[in-house]
Amino acid sequence: MKHKIFLVVLLFAQLGTFAQDDASTLKSIFDEALTDRTAYENLRVLCKEHKGRITGSPEAENAVEYTYELMNKMNLDAVDKQPVQVPQWVRGEDEQAYITSSKFGKTEVPVTALGMTIGTGNNGLQARIIEFNNFDEMENAGEAQIKGKIVFFNYPMKITSINTFLAYGEASSYRTTGAARAAKYGAVGVVVRSITTALDDYPHTGVMRYNPEVEKIPAVAISTNGAELLHKQLAEDPELKFYFRTTCKTLPDVESNNVIGEIRGSEFPEEIITVGGHLDAWENGEGAHDDGAGCMQSIEVLRLYKQLGIQPKRTIRAVMFMDEEVAQCGGKEYARQAAMKGEKHYFALESDRGALVPRGFGVSGPEERVEKILALKKYFELYGITDFIKGGGGVDISPLREFGTPLSSYIPDDQRYFDFHHSGFDTFEQVNFREFQMGSAAIASFIYLIDKYDL
Predict the structure, then answer these.
(1) Is residue 294 in some structural domain?
(2) pLDDT (tens digit per residue) in 187-218
(3) CA gap 280, 288 in Å, rounded
(4) Which of 103, 159, 246, 435 shows a CA-CA span of 20 to 30 A to 312?
């Protein structure tokens, strides 16, 4: 009996020591992140010197070279470029748009072309405009009311939704499929209310998709203030016309690269933990929150480990994925190469939800592993990071699901994220150093614990 008691006491003593060691390591990670501005300066350079980095563009290729050289200077075990074929859509000249009304005169409004849309041509497009709050209203109106007009989808992102990503997902269908669905009824163009909870003059872009069986028509997003104005003027003058001009076009696919840096594992180097963000960004802004911050946080994980002498058991890879915004070619190619090489992907985390105050992590995968990973919450409560939930991943790492890899999403606060998302407001100045680096430290600590305890 005494022997059993001794073993139990010894076990608890060991657990206490482990917990103390872990607390000390996590504190060192947070301390280093919050007192070193390397990652923040790297983000500034990416945003200011490599903005406009939509996939397939020269700016995107410059960003590839920048991050490749950045990681090459870190004395990592390997830094590589992984070639990938990507689409090449060119926005062209600055967009123009205005309302012409016999009652209100001519009023300019801010618009931005949606990604992958065709252009209007040099002369632009002018027609009467018809407003719908949802797809059902449009379908009920039918071709008789729509043919020859521009369709205006005035579907606001639900401001009462506490989870803004759910609200975004609901509203985004008007951006992605609105043009294809309106064209079936003879529409000549589409104007979509920007997907944001903010009322401002920044139009928010994003990718749209055509139906190959339906004629292509040009599509733009209008700022929320512009949408409110258009709605009010239409209510008093249903005969008003809308004009917009875009010169965008799609060119043949080109070669780009994912950029990969890694620290080799000391015990299980063949098992890979991926942490990444996407390097491409919509060129109407600087791509700071979406997703320059996620890229630099991923690289910062490696810097923190190197600086603090943390040697992971497994290989930790920071991956700058290319082409998340348009066709997700980078994530697909990364998984294809992994399958071809027979790689073992132990865990993957994506940071692509901005760099606001860290809240926690979402995890999906085999139930037993998910439960163990979510139990790490206790290590983070001291830092105010408490949202550990089932369900996680990201666009770029989602193809790794085929290997049975648990997928995780880093979750910052989301209440203001869609103020920036896909707009000209997504600049470096909107990223707070402390919030950004709290996130970097949280990700590094999360990966450290998963690796250490074989979770």
Answers:
(1) yes
(2) 999 999 999 999 999 999 999 999 999 999 99
(3) 11
(4) 435
353: domain CATH number?
Answer: 3.40.630.10
Cβ atoms < 10 Å from Cβ of 207: 20
Residues 227 and 259 in one domain: no
List the one residue out of 325, 258, 314 whose CA is nearest residue 84.
258
Domain, as residue range, for 153: 95-247
Q: Average per-residue pLDDT in the chain?
A: 95
The last residue of one of the domains, among 247, 272, 305, is: 247
Within a domain: residue 6? no
Q: Of 223, 247, 271, which one is at a domain's C-terminal end?
A: 247
Report the predicted TM-score, pTM, of the whole model to 2 decimal places.
Answer: 0.94
Same domain, 323 and 404: yes
Which residue, 379, 450, 439, 358, is CA-closest to 33? 439
Per-residue model confidence as pLDDT tens digits over 44-93: 999 999 999 999 999 999 999 999 999 999 999 999 999 999 999 999 99
Regarding whether 360 and 422 lie in a shared domain, the answer is yes
* CB 316, CB 71: distance < 8 Å: no
Count the domains in the chain: 2
Instruction: Give pLDDT tens digits for 264-313.
Output: 999 999 999 999 999 999 999 999 999 999 999 999 999 999 999 999 99
Amino acid at 374: L
Give the position of tokens 């009467």.
128
Q: Are residues 314 and 389 in the same domain?
A: yes
| pLDDT range class, residue 20, cuts 50, 70, 90 | confident
Are 169 and 203 spatial neighbours (Cβ–Cβ below 8 Å)? no
The answer to whether the CB of 288 falls within 8 A of the CB of 43 is: yes
Tell me how far the alpha carbon of residue 64 is from its chain's centroid.
17
